[in-house]
TrEMBL record:
This is Potassium channel domain-containing protein. It is a multi-pass membrane protein. SUPFAM superfamilies: Voltage-gated potassium channels (SSF81324). Signal peptide: none annotated. The chain crosses the membrane at residues 16-35, 68-89. Residues 21-89 form the Potassium channel domain. InterPro entries: 2pore_dom_K_chnl (IPR003280), K_chnl_dom (IPR013099), K_chnl_volt-dep_EAG/ELK/ERG (IPR003938). One of its GO terms (biological process) is stabilization of membrane potential. It is found in: Membrane. The keyword Transport applies. It comes from Roseivirga echinicomitans. Pfam families: Ion_trans_2. Its main location: membrane. It comes from the Bacteria.
Amino acid sequence: MLRTILSFLRDKHYRNLLFATVSVLVIGTVTYHYLEQWTWLDSLYFSIITLTTVGYGDFSPQTDWGKIFTIIYIIIGVGLILTFINTVYNHFKNIPQDHFNQKN
């Protein structure tokens, strides 16, 4: 399993996609922390549930700037996050099952 994860990270395309995904989540987390005065954990939580389109509804921006940021954040981020999730899924789907059963 560790070998599989390392092979994923060695690939430039995957690595760039991971970097972009983490960057978008960090930008969202920092922005919500300062605009909405949420804790770091709540800000990260909201960033993730927003971009994965889960949206439980337990948090929502209360400031006008928070709402404006969320509109832009969703337009930019949802496609990126879904691409990342799909890429990870396809990467692991294409690995033979016996690869997972080998000891590292």
